[in-house]
Amino acid sequence: MELTAAVWRKSTRSNGASGACVEVADNLPGVVGVRDSKDPTGPALVFAPQAWRSFVRQVRTR
Q1: What stretches in the chain show pLDDT beneath 50?
Q2: Among 13, 16, 44, 49, which one has the highest count of C-beta atoms within 10 angstroms of its own C-beta?
Q3: How far apart, in whole angstroms, are the C-alpha atoms of residue 17 and residue 5?
């Protein structure tokens, strides 16, 4: 999966102090990319938008 056009943003839950942040790219058609902000050139996970929305919904209810 090519993610060079991805626009990455940090989680709104990131405090920025510890460096342990998740970045999400949801500007690509048909996919949502997720990566570790400490390793921006490292691997990224790719999800279908519906799967990502479902995951976020579940996390918010916990």
Answers
A1: none
A2: 44
A3: 27
Report the number of distinct structural domains present in the chain: 1
C-alpha 41/C-alpha 56 separation (Å) is 24
Yes or no: say if 45 and 35 are a contact pair by the CB < 8 Å rule. Answer: yes
Cβ neighbours of 62 (radius 10 Å): 4
Which pLDDT value is given to residue 15? Answer: 67
Six-digit token string for 19: 């460096």
Q: 28 - beta bridge partners? A: none
What strand order describes the sheet that includes 44-47?
9-10, 22-25, 32-36, 44-47
In a domain, residue 9? The reply is: no
- Is 12 within the bounds of a domain? no
